[in-house]
Amino acid sequence: MIKNSKEIEKMRLAGTLASKVLVMIEEHVKPGVTTQQLNDICHEYIVNELDCVPAPLNYRGFPKSICTSINHQVCHGIPNERILKKKDIVNIDVTVIKDGYHGDTSRMFFVGKPSIQAKRLVDLTYEALKIGINTVKPGATVGDIGNNIQEFAEKNHFSVVREYCGHGIGKDFHEEPQILHYGNKGEGIELKEGMTFTIEPMINFGKREVKLLPDNWTVVTKDHSLSAQWEHTILVTKEGYEVLTIRPGEYI
Ligand code: MF3
Ligand code: CO
Ligand code: CO
User: Fold this and answer.
1) How many CA atoms lie within 13 A of 210 on its CB side?
2) What does the pLDDT profile of the chain (252 residues) look like in tens digits?
3) Which residue has a Cα nearest atom 2 of ligand 1?
4) CA distances from 178 to 40, 163, 190, 197 (A)
5) What is this structure's pTM?
6) pLDDT of residue 56
7) CB contact at 8 A, 48 and 191
8) Domain 5-243: what homologous superfamily?
9) What is the torsional sign of CA 165, 195, 57, 61?
10) CA 34 to ligand 2 center in whole angstroms
């Protein structure tokens, strides 16, 4: 669970490269593009420009190189021929492997101008991620992270998805510990310097319940309300945290 300085250097590189994919893809996310096209652009960039491996491809049978989750889709959407249209919101989730180590990050994009509700949900979910990140320091617990995210979301009358969570990350895509986005202060394991994990809250406009589509990957809200997610890979430092997947100009 604790990474040494050599491993941390590799995690830094993997995180930086994952963040570059989200920067690169931004200009392509517009009305008329299919999620398959976005997948292909990311795949080609990850493999040929970054010299990385797209971790989702063939991971437990996942068939594509990124996840694209639109509107009421919560996570793990599979890129396909669906055409993005104005007012859609879409999460693109990128995980790259560089020199054996993973960097995992996702963000929301607006396709055209969003509805007021969609913008509120997306902006608040990003705030929730930042609140989670700002909780990270040695001695804090995973329950502290979850509690801060949950309190913030629910105070704003949104709900937090419980079935999926953040995760330790390193040589493996998903390692211990689980980082729940809800919970009680002081509960769960204590954070220690050198741990690397993701925080990736999924927040719904309506009720928290989700269901799995018959493709066995795509998760959607049961009530078909909009859902948003943002994700970063974090390192616990002596002072607090370092965001390994931060984008240029992003301030946490
Ligand atoms: N990137 C996702 C996460 O944040 C996991 C996707 S698994 C896949 O943990 F197989 F759907 F790609
Ligand atoms: Co993740
Ligand atoms: Co991810």
Assistant:
1) 25
2) 899 999 999 999 999 999 999 999 999 999 999 999 999 999 999 999 999 999 999 999 999 999 999 999 999 999 999 999 999 999 999 999 999 999 999 999 999 999 999 999 999 999 999 999 999 999 999 999 999 999 999 999 999 999 999 999 999 999 999 999 999 999 999 999 999 999 999 999 999 999 999 999 999 999 999 999 999 999 999 999 999 999 999 999
3) 93
4) 30, 11, 12, 8
5) 0.98
6) 99
7) no
8) Creatinase/methionine aminopeptidase superfamily (3.90.230.10)
9) negative
10) 23
* Residue of the CA atom closest to atom 12 of ligand 1: 56
Helices (H), the chain: 5-25, 35-44, 116-134, 142-155
**Residue in this structure with the two tokens 């509690």, named with its chain if needed:** 147
Q: How far is CA 21 from CA 3, 65, 68, 131, 134, in A?
A: 24, 12, 13, 24, 24
Q: Are 111 and 21 in contact (CB under 8 A)?
A: no
Q: What is the DSSP letter of 86?
A: T
Answer for the pair 105, 16: CB distance below 8 angstroms, yes or no. Answer: no
Ligand 1 pocket, residues with Cβ under 6 angstroms: 56, 59-60, 62, 67, 76, 93, 95, 104, 198, 200, 217, 231
Compute the distance from residue 211 Cα to the ligand 3 centre, in Å.
Answer: 19
Transcribe 99-155 into DSSP letters. Answer: TTEEEEEEEEEESSSPPHHHHHHHHHHHHHHHHHHHT-STT-BHHHHHHHHHHHHHH
- Retrieve residue 4's tokens: 């040494």
Q: Which of 19, 43, 59, 68 to mutate to test the pocket of ligand 1 (most atoms within 8 A of CB)?
A: 59
Taking CA atoms, 55 is separated from 89, 100, 159, 179, 216, in Å, by: 23, 10, 29, 20, 18
